[in-house]
Design brief:
- One of its GO terms (molecular function) is nucleotide binding.
- The structure is a single chain.
- The chain is an alpha/beta fold and about 280 residues long.
- It has two domains: about 60 residues, no CATH class; about 160 residues, Rossmann fold.
- The radius of gyration is 19 Å and the shape is globular.
- The N terminus is likely disordered.
- The structure holds 1-O-pyrophosphono-5-O-phosphono-alpha-D-ribofuranose and hypoxanthine.
Length: about 280
């Protein structure tokens, strides 16, 4: 079954107001459709669906005749047909990279993340269509989410700026120090009188975001909202609710899609948990 799916190509990904379906054409011409419930602002994932959708990795049309082992960089520009997906469709990046050997299981697949990020972009676009917007990505964890999200903010705000600054509280461990460290990249003058959207990868204890929202308010922002890809409610120490949330996150230390463990795994296009033997316990 998995082999079959691995050989498949994702034909379409449809979104409705209350469900999201992945439809794949499998080599033997059968169809697979998976649905997840999508309730309001927060996507309630179903574990079995996520694991299933993870294995739907399609090959780029230009890769069809290449062995899987051939690196993508050997393809020339001309090999890539310029197909621009309609703005309203999730951005399915066809690829077939093996799961990282130190990853235990994929919790949010690349396809699912991309679909949800596109959806959040449209929600944000609708809310800011008549105002200016300063999108502030919180480094390093939110670098990937921010760069994907801004491409999907539509309708376009009257004007939009994108910037980043660095805040951290975890160091090389898996627990928050509770002290949020900012570096000099944050300049208060840069947010004065602006409508700020803070973009974060994850809310865990809530220390980082409660500190950052207070900081924006002190700096004189006209308004402050928060978009967080993941919300790990079970670990909250300080009450905090984001304005735009991607997914509820299970109570596990997760990595990937910008999120690290001791600076590793930020490059992964999906989010998963690390195998126990690769976590250092003090
Ligand atoms: O809700 P909290 O418990 O405060 O956790 C959330 C924060 O933790 C992570 O940052 P980290 O300190 O690991 O820095 P990084 O973004 O550079 O990885 C993450 O990117 C959030 O900023
Ligand atoms: O689950 C997590 N993983 C990585 N970094 C984090 N920072 C807060 N929570 C997490």
């Amino acid at each position: 079954m998995t082999d079959n799916i691995m050989q498949s190509s994702a034909k379409s990904c449809r979104r409705g107001p209350s469900r999201l379906s992945f439809i794949c054409t499998v080599r033997n011409k059968s169809y697979i459709s998976m649905t997840t419930n999508n309730s309001g602002g927060c996507f309630n994932f179903q574990q079995h669906v996520l694991h299933a959708s993870t294995s739907i990795t399609a090959r780029h049309p230009a890769q069809r005749h290449l062995p899987f082992s051939q690196p993508l960089r050997s393809l020339s520009r001309a090999d890539h047909p310029l197909e621009t997906p309609p703005h309203s469709q999730p951005n399915l990046h066809p690829r077939r990279l093996p799961i990282h050997p130190e990853i235990n299981s994929v919790i949010f697949s690349e396809e699912l993340i991309q679909a949800r990020v596109a959806e959040l972009g449209r929600l944000i676009g609708q809310d800011y269509q008549r105002s200016d917007l300063l999108v502030l990505g919180v480094l390093k964890g939110a670098f990937m989410f921010t760069t994907d999200l801004v491409r999907h903010i539509y309708p376009y705000p009257a004007s939009m700026e994108v910037d980043f600054f660095k805040a951290s509280s975890y160091g090389a461990g898996t627990t928050s120090s509770g002290v949020v460290q900012l570096d000099s990249s944050f300049k208060k003058e840069g947010v004065r009188d602006k409508h700020v959207l803070l973009v974060e990868d994850i809310i865990d204890t809530g220390h980082t975001l409660s500190r950052l929202v207070a900081l924006m308010e002190e700096a004189g922002a006209a308004s402050v909202r928060v978009a967080a890809l993941l919300d790990k409610k079970a670990r909250r120490r300080i009450p905090f609710q984001a304005d735009y949330t991607g997914f509820e996150c299970p109570d596990e230390f997760i990595v990937g899609y910008g999120i690290d463990y001791a600076e590793k795994y930020r490059n992964l296009p999906y989010i998963g948990s690390v195998k126990e033997e690769f976590i250092k316990h003090d």
